[in-house]
Amino acid sequence: MLELSNNNELPAIPAKCYFSIGEVSELCGVKPHVLRYWEQEFSEISPVKRRGNRRYYQRHDVLIIRQIRSLLYEQGYTIGGAKAHLSSNNAKSESTITKQLIHQMIGELEDILELLR
């Protein structure tokens, strides 16, 4: 899902639950006002807002922001193109996960059937 062309040059993401907008800005190489704009444009970015409307991003938000950064700055996508790319990737990954869950459930049901016999 995450294209890692120049993202290798970005700092490693620390093992934390929440990141402030300043931390995400440094981790992703994007200014805070750009992050706030991307929140409006991309529904995939959804930071938790706490007291005083302070934003706290989770690890998956940081990964999505890095992917968006790569699409826009390195691969030359427009905002609309990046949205379409992300939504098609999300649909593909959701269908793959669904198929995996179905196969796992079938296996478990077959095991239960064997136990009942």
3D architecture notes:
With 117 residues, the protein is mostly helical. The chain has one domain: Multidrug-efflux Transporter Regulator, Chain: A, Domain 2 (Orthogonal Bundle), CATH 1.10.1660.10. It is 62% helix and 8% strand. It contains 4 helices and 3 strands; from the N terminus they run E-H-H-E-E-H-H. The protein has a 3-stranded antiparallel beta sheet with strand order 1-3-2. Strand 2 and strand 3 form a beta hairpin. The chain starts with 18 loop residues before the first strand and ends with a helix.
What distinguishing features does this structure have?
single chain; mainly alpha; Multidrug-efflux Transporter Regulator, Chain: A, Domain 2
